[in-house]
Amino acid sequence: QVQLVESGGGLVQPGGSLKLACAASGNIRSIFVMGWYRQAPGAQRELVANIALDDDNTNYADSVKGRFTISRDNAKSTVFLQMNSLKPEDTAVYYCNVVAGRALNLYWGQGTQVTVSS
Fold first, then answer.
1. Which are the contacts of 22, defined by CB distance < 8 A and separation ≥ 6?
2. How high is the pLDDT of residue 75?
3. Cβ contact 68:80 at 8 Å
4. Tell me: the pLDDT tens digits for 21-68?
5. Spatial distance between the Cα atoms of 64 and 61, rounded to a whole number of angstroms
6. For 95-112, how does the pLDDT look when each residue is reduced to its tens digit (9 = 90+)?
7. Do 2 and 27 contact (CB within 8 A), yes or no?
8. Residue 82: beta bridge partners?
9. Of 20, 50, 38, 33, which Cα lies nearest the Cα of 100?
10. Is 104 exposed, middle or buried (CB count within 10 Å of its CB: 0-12, 13-18, 19+)?
11. On the CB side of 7, how many CA atoms lie within 13 Å of its CA?
């Protein structure tokens, strides 16, 4: 089992920045991939970015490339999402996600609201 706790959401003006953090606990050595998804009102949940823990290979949604950066700490227990040049369309609930274990189980955080508005 893996537990995830997100932090760092909030209200920011267009063009501003926020940094999200997701702390993992439990069986963290079983984690293969850590990432962030988001879900705007009335929309499907979508992948924002993820990072593979064996080689630090990253993957980004086209809509955030060049603006968002995913990273993790060396202990593999925390993943970050640095969000720059935020736009109103980035407004959503952001969810931390990990893939872990031989069964490739998915674990989700509780979500953190990001609102980009003037």
1. 4, 5, 6, 7, 34, 36, 78, 79, 80, 96, 109
2. 73
3. no
4. 999 999 988 999 999 999 999 999 999 999 999 899 999 999 999 999
5. 6
6. 999 999 888 999 999 999
7. yes
8. 19, 69
9. 33
10. exposed
11. 5
Tokens 């702390």 correspond to 23
Q: SS3 sequence, the chain?
A: CEEEEEECCEEECCCCCEEEEEEEEECHHHEEEEEEEEECCCCCCEEEEEEECCCCCEEECCCCCCCEEEEECCCCCEEEEEECCCCHHHCEEEEEEEEECCCCEEEECCCEEEEECC
Q: CA neighbours within 13 Å on the CB side: how many for 67?
A: 16
Give the position of tokens 């593979």. 52
Half-sphere exposure of 91 (CA within 13 A, CB side): 12
